[in-house]
Amino acid sequence: MSSQASSVALVRFDAVAPLRARVSEWKAAGERVVLVPTMGALHRGHLSLVNRGRELGQRVIVSIFVNPTQFGPSEDFSRYPRDTETDLALLAGAGVDAAYLPSVETMYPKDFSTSLTVAGITDGLCGAYRPGHFAGVATVVTKLVNQVQPDIALFGEKDFQQLQVIRRAVRDLDIPVEIGGVPTLREEDGLALSSRNRYLDAEERRIAPIIHRELTRIAEGLRTGKAASPLVAASTDRLTEAGFSTIQYLSVCDADTLAPVEHATGPTRILVAAYLGSTRLIDNVAV
Questions:
Q1: pLDDT single digits (tens) 201-220
Q2: Is 263 a catalytic residue?
Q3: Catalytic residue selected from 46, 133, 212, 263
């Protein structure tokens, strides 16, 4: 169901009511609406979600909102890259029908006092190092889905724990939206595309693809029946030797529950978060 929207000018919305009215018109015409939530600083990875959205529905909406509630007090909210005009030009060129750019006041009005916690699946991995992060993610995504009311919402698999948290929240709360994951887009050397890659200096950028190389090495070992622990230990050593300063986790997990596993007997993900200089990189591969 490829979208025919490429000939239509991108429309920008800042408020919920006019956006909902437009979505209602599209749905009344029998068109499927796809939402791609982003924090801006768009790159080819985001556009791959847009392209997938145009395959799945007739109308694609991209939201841009740097969500303060998913950043910790020592994280990079204030310096997170923002380039709205470039983002909007990219979306127009990609045939996106509407951009939704809510203000902080729209998303979190005075006396806002509700937060969505998804227990269990958020305990480990990034959840162990970023307290409150996934409550912020789950809350803002729930708000965006309720505001836009799409048929489908798409997220990149690079943030795999985030994707699984959102799937769980939508399932548990019976939210009427289909959640889709889109495979990670990579540079030719394997580095996962990320808005934070622009923080890397030239030497760090040279080192960064090693993270994907090690994930691939672990996956190959698991496919031959090897246990996870020695593979992870060896890769951790190699990442440290390469220059990664802090490896928060390098874990082999059940792809559904994200519980650690020692052998890949079912759908499995290898996930990592590591610092290269001051930049935190995350990545994952399927087994």
A1: 999 999 999 999 999 999 99
A2: no
A3: 46
